[in-house]
Amino acid sequence: MTSLRPLFACAVLLLAARSFAQKDDTRYVPLCVGFYNIENLYDTLDGPDNDDAEFLPTAPKQWNTQRYTRKLGKMAQVISEMGRDVHPDGLACMGFAEVENRSVLQDLVNTAPINKRGYRIVHHDSPDRRGVDVGFIYNPKHFTPFADRAYRLRDPADSTFRTRDQLLVSGVLDGDTVHFIVAHWPSRRGGEKVSQPRRFLAAQLGRHIEDSLMARYRHARIIYMGDLNDDPTDPSIRRFLNTTGDKAQAVNGKLYDPMWELYQKGIGSLAWNDSWNLFDQIILSPALVTGEGGRYHYYGVRVFNEPYLRQKDGPFAGYPNRTFVGDQYIDGYSDHFPVFVILVRPVDGGDAKQ
């Protein structure tokens, strides 16, 4: 097996907290937005409307209060450290995949070391058969939501199809109106090609939400984030979501995918069969590339792949260190690395006085 360790290159320049200078000597204030597939964050109770049997104390995984609490602590540790070298408050907002319900998100934000940040939650129950949803947390110091809505993904060819909703959260992010969409597209279960049409449907739904926002707001500032179960070069993302990896081409509604460049360098967020995938993505509308219609614009992106999140030895050394392998508890974190983007705005007079 080829070693994967050389792929862990730094994805963005290290930034000084609070402000930093670009080539024109203008000083900028940074802000960070993240996403994390947190891998099966279930409570220990039997949910009546979903198939959570494998995450009960009586199941082979022996999922109990001690393991659940330990998982919360590990997730809170990761979230607390993401973006801290960029901004002292860390992440202003974060989307999640694979949370069972609002209760587990509430337990998470109440867990040290992030409990003092006062994160608040946006969550809607979805019809996914496994009972996993997407969710969103935000620091009220930086973001104030004014609307949220869940969009149902349907398969016209299969009325029994049930999966995660796509969650839209609109609000004011440090003075800018920003729309966040959190998604977890259908998996590759059954094979990439066989399952591909449902990811096309998911991309079309995401594109519909974005087109509606861009039709309503001239310079709609949209952040589409999620575990898309496809890479930046796949047709679901390039063609159906209509993205580009070139900032100059992010015009007339074409979205900018900053993960494309990372993927070309061999950087991923999860590993399978000794190769990397970059399913965890954060994609931006043109206004967040150019800065039109607001203060913040895109600066950089990072896969948060710190050494403690990786398996240290064995045949899967370098892979994400997950909670379970099958039913074997290995006390890790997640089978995905989290990701985040850095937005910046010019320093104003009020910032200079701080």
Note down, in words, how this protein is organized:
The protein has 354 residues and is α+β, with helices and mostly antiparallel strands. It has a single domain, classed as Endonuclease/exonuclease/phosphatase (Deoxyribonuclease I, Chain A), CATH 3.60.10. It has helices at 65-81, 102-109, 192-216, 235-240, 259-264, 286-290, 349-352, and strands spanning 20-21, 27-41, 91-99, 120-123, 133-138, 143-151, 166-173, 176-184, 222-227, 243-244, 255-256, 270-272, 275-277, 280-284, 297-303, 324-325, 328-329, 339-346.
- How many strands in all? 18
Strand content bin: 25-35%
Number of helices: 7
Biggest sheet layout = 7 strands, mixed
Reported CATH architecture: 4-Layer Sandwich
Q: Structural class, judged by helices and strands?
A: alpha+beta
Question: Topology as H/E string?
Answer: EEHEHEEEEEHEHEEHEEEHEEEEH
The CATH superfamily label reads Endonuclease/exonuclease/phosphatase
Mean pLDDT: 91
In CATH's first tier, which class applies? Alpha Beta
Query: How many angstroms does the end-to-end distance come to?
Result: 52 Å
Shape: globular
Give the uncertain stretches in residue-range form.
1-18
Share of helix among residues? 10-25%
Gist of the model:
With 354 residues, the chain is α+β, with helices and mostly antiparallel strands.
Write the layout of secondary structure elements.
Elements: E1 20-21, E2 27-41, H1 65-81, E3 91-99, H2 102-109, E4 120-123, E5 133-138, E6 143-151, E7 166-173, E8 176-184, H3 192-216, E9 222-227, H4 235-240, E10 243-244, E11 255-256, H5 259-264, E12 270-272, E13 275-277, E14 280-284, H6 286-290, E15 297-303, E16 324-325, E17 328-329, E18 339-346, H7 349-352
Parallel strand pairs: 2-3, 8-9, 10-11
Antiparallel strand pairs: 1-2, 2-18, 3-5, 4-5, 6-7, 7-8, 9-14, 12-13, 15-18, 16-17
